Amino acid sequence: MALDTTEARTRGVFPDGETRYQALFENSLDGLMLTAPDGSILDANPAACRIMGRTREEILQAGRQGLMDATDTRLSVLIAERQRTGRAHGELTAKRKDGTRFPVEVSSVVFTSPDGELRTCMIIRDITERKAAEAERERLIKELQEALGRVKTLSGLLPICASCRRIRDQQGTWHNLEVYIRNHTEADFSHGICPGCHRNLYPESSGA
């Protein structure tokens, strides 16, 4: 009675090298796929199935066309780079079984199998969280830059006339206090009369 793959590995039927390969393949946190240059997929590890939201059989049936968003122009660029140099690395848009599109980081290398066939090894990482963090960081940086652009501050000694309360700027020009503060800070003024001034200006309305 033939042993299945798992039982055979457990009993040490496979050579050590193949056993180590199989262990790495099945336990990698990254998605690993054995593919052919034409886009067909020959094998996929459990992490690839988790990332893609598909079973191994569904991944093999879908092929590259079914897993990657063909409208993403970066796909053709990455394929051309691999054809030219034998390897490629970049970000693409992948598709899950339910049609959800999400960003992935892909590394791919072309090699020749023991039987002389060209094969490609692909490593896939779901970078959805990383892209969301980058977008949030960019948003915060933009908000900070906008906030800094709006901030105006006063610092140092301000020469002010003891009589008329005008302020002299660095060019020697004297300005109304309200105008100077309005032009150099985010503050503005609303006018009213304090109780003391009200009594001085309108003593008749202050009462006995």
Care to give the gist of this entry?
The chain is α+β, with helices and mostly antiparallel strands and 208 residues long.
Task: Summarize the structure in words.
With 208 residues, the chain is an alpha+beta fold. Among the domains are: 30-127, PAS domain (Beta-Lactamase); 151-191, no CATH class. Helices cover 42% and strands 21% of the residues. The protein has helices at 5-10, 16-27, 46-52, 56-67, 74-85, 128-150, 177-184, 195-201; strands at residues 31-35, 41-44, 87-95, 101-112, 118-126, 167-168, 174-175. The strands form two sheets. It has a five-stranded antiparallel sheet, with helices on both faces. It has a two-stranded antiparallel sheet with strand order 6-7. β6 (167-168) and β7 (174-175) form a beta hairpin. The chain is rod-shaped and about 105 Å long. It starts with a helix and ends in a 7-residue tail after the last helix. The model is unreliable at 1-15 (pLDDT under 50).
